[in-house]
Amino acid sequence: MIIIPAIDLKDGKCVRLLQGKKDEVTVYSDDPAEMAKKWVDMGARLLHVVDLDGAFSGEQKNIEKIKEIRKAIQIPIQLGGGIRDIKRIEQLADIGVDRMILGTSAAKDPDMVARACKKFECRVLVGIDAKDGKVAVKGWVEVTELDAIKFAKDMESAGAAGIIYTDISRDGMMTGPNIEAMAKMVKNVKIPVIASGGVSKLEDIKNLMQIKDLWGVITGKALYSGALDLKSAIELTREA
């Protein structure tokens, strides 16, 4: 299991939102590229970037900052937020983004996911944000009737390279991840699953490591607040 630090972009800054609410913002840095380098220096092997403005509006608003991050680091970058069509995936691939994450667009247009996966083999992941087992979209503003597990299976069949699963009731709350829901997701699909949401301390990483075949975990607020040390978390997973 690998530890994946997150950089959430809003108005060109590195921020965190409380449970995805765009008016509850904490700014951690005015220089996301420098923050990316910090995480790489501490041992990160993959960086998770979210264009929050894109998630809410459907259009990438932080493309220049994404380019700066790409130039600043050598490790792979996966990006989500506002990726609504194949043309946008092509543009992001052209600037060096390694893996693209489809969220709202996957829920709204599953056929597009299949086309994207065929064209960009092994580079398209699907982000599933769930509340009480139901898929949430549009920056978590709208909760659908889609069952998260069934949706994950459909996305696996469509060719998705992996699933990023977020329990939005836990995200940014520092209350610990939903281990039961995460284990259920991993058990029900064969493609890699990355856990997201709720990590607040090293103990949470230990608990997630008990989920057989969980591929990775994304952590953001815990790193920025100092509650979790990235080096210690990475060391823990390497010792396992």
Question: Which band does the percent of strand residues land in?
Answer: 25-35%
**Quick one: CATH superfamily?**
Aldolase class I
Low-confidence stretches: none
Helix content percent band: 25-40%
Please state how the strands of the largest beta sheet are arranged side by side. 1-4-5-6-7-10-11-12
The level 1 CATH classification is Alpha Beta
Indicate the CATH topology.
Answer: TIM Barrel
Oligomeric state of the chains?
single chain
Query: Termini distance?
Result: 9 Å
Q: What would your notes on this structure say?
A:
There is one protein chain. This protein has helices at residues 32-41, 52-57, 63-72, 86-94, 104-108, 110-119, 148-158, 179-188, 202-209, 221-225, 230-239; strands at 2-10, 13-18, 21-29, 47-51, 77-80, 99-102, 124-131, 134-137, 142-147, 163-167, 193-196, 216-219. With 240 residues, it is an alpha/beta fold. The chain has one domain (2-239): Alpha-Beta Barrel (TIM Barrel), CATH 3.20.20. It has an 8-stranded parallel beta barrel, surrounded by 7 helices. 46% of the residues are buried.
Identify the notable features of this structure and list them briefly.
39% helix, 240 residues, 11 helices, single chain, eight-stranded parallel barrel, alpha/beta, TIM Barrel
Task: Write a brief caption for the model.
With 240 residues, this protein is α/β, with parallel strands linked by helices.
